[in-house]
């Protein structure tokens, strides 16, 4: 779900639940506040583990002795990665370059220009930035060096449509795939085959050696899927892209359909594949992953005497359905102390999806808040269960919040506020639910992105 960001308070006055109807939800304030503070601390640790300003320097090559050093990149972390490169090379290399990031995700730099553009739907600002980046890369010689900074969000931000495809058609295709609930990996296979710069084509355009630093936002950390892999061999094909459109019943513009069909017939060159000699001059380095952030969060719970259980960083599927599975696990733990005994924190990452019905209106929020609202509905105010779900980039879907937080009183407080959970879930308005009870998590842009963070804290009732 996408839309204009709005500013909202991070907390409001919370009405008292009716103890006669919600006795199990009467959580002592101190215990509730402590659990919520711990969940927020764990989220901060997850984000910090992927902070480019802290991690980029250790992965950079030594300063280039001869020729130019061109820095280009795209993604939600692009600006902070560029700033980190400038800080690391200060006084030891002559830098120039351009990176493109999401609107409101920029930050000051001295030598590397930062452009803001559209996400998750691409726009003309991103198209112009991508064209500029490709032109600069093509001008490099063997004596120069190219540093590419890649992070989640780069697929839409680094959009340079293939010949015969307009930006309007690329926008329409992106919106249609989002509406269909296509996973990000499938979306990127399609986008790579509609691009002049993604799917390894940026590396193909460079005569200079390439070093790429990658902050992963995809399940499994496949570098070819992150920002649609501008410097990575692409194992997918035009035929794969067509199969994805058929599988989701996506109605795309005629120019897009024609381009993919021509590619499948061999009339258009494929993206460069694994084994292509050009990648001998490319060094792709993964510098931050979702799993690393989950481990950082786990250390926070461990330090507080709570057993952390990392359930994985590759969780995908419909957000509300994933929450139903997690709720079943929570009920098993509460009833039988199995397979884990309370107190325990269930931690996971990945990227769920929210599929909107055709013609849906009034949807607000994103996959993290929808997951959490579904969990609230499924657990029905179970005592001792607190949870957080938030996107590590600081923006969950259509609004300005990173996600939300919930506890055993969430249902009762929402009822009192006139925003019953089931109604809000059916309307895909998780943002409205959590805003009404003051439980949005608002961080602002974090300028990094290692996908979603979820933690369910189960205490002894």
From TrEMBL:
It comes from the Bacteria. It comes from Cupriavidus plantarum. This is Hydroxypyruvate reductase. Residues 18-32 have a biased composition (Basic and acidic residues). GO terms for cellular component: cytoplasm. Residues 39-261 form the MOFRL-associated domain. One of its GO terms (molecular function) is glycerate kinase activity. Residues 344-452 form the MOFRL domain. The keyword Glycosyltransferase does not apply. Residues 1-32 are annotated as: Disordered.
